[in-house]
Design goal:
This protein is of the alpha/beta class and about 190 residues long. It contains eight helices and six strands. A hairpin with a 6-residue loop joins strand 5 and strand 6.
Length: about 190
């Protein structure tokens, strides 16, 4: 992972690198944990501190994970590693430039499950045009193109959305409880 972080920091193939970002923002959390979380990209606070999900949305994500006893299991990264100008959503082309690094992270971590946070992350990883309300809460499989490592993956709403729409917190909590049950081997198949 240290070599991967160095490769990301040296990578010049993502256009975002030259658009005002201070530094590459790779990851934080437990690389031996059972959960990999992928968001869309760093914001201003993340760009300043060099870690993903450390602003208000990240603090909410940490509270959610702590409530579900998952924070110590989580390794958190994004689909792009440089802050998009004005905190805009990264483009599919920017995400595609960084995708091999995200897949390599999956291959190195071999998590028991992956949580995609927000529409941009869900669309990039699941390679779909479906909106987040259609994909959230559903289990899919993410298989890396590089070496075929696979993990169950679920998308949920971004905590930044929850800060604007707190009434949606129940949907995310349902997804987190489902994720927690899967990680603990308590998966109940629909209809069972």
């Amino acid at each position: 992972l240290d070599e991967l972080a160095e490769a990301i920091a040296a990578f010049e193939g993502c256009p975002l690198r030259g658009m005002g970002a201070r530094q590459a923002v790779f990851a934080r959390g437990n690389p031996q944990g059972s959960l990999m979380i992928v968001g869309e990209g760093p914001g201003a606070e993340e760009d300043a501190r060099g870690q993903p999900f450390v602003g208000k949305a990240g603090q909410l994500l940490d509270r959610i994970l702590t409530a579900a006893d998952l924070l110590d299991e989580a390794f958190i990264t994004n689909t792009v590693f440089w802050r998009p100008p004005g905190n805009r959503t990264p483009t599919p082309q920017e995400q595609a430039a960084c995708a091999p690094f995200v897949e390599r992270t999956l291959a190195l971590l071999k998590p028991k499950a992956v949580l995609l946070v927000g529409a941009a992350a869900a669309k990039a990883v699941l390679k779909t045009d479906d909106g987040i309300m259609r994909t959230r809460g559903q289990w899919r499989e993410w298989r890396s193109a590089e070496d075929g490592i696979a993990a169950p993956v679920m998308a949920t709403l971004h905590p930044a959305f929850l800060l604007r729409q707190p009434q949606a917190k129940g949907l995310v909590w349902k997804d987190i409880l489902d994720l927690s049950a899967r990680l603990r081997g308590e998966v109940v198949e629909p209809g069972a």
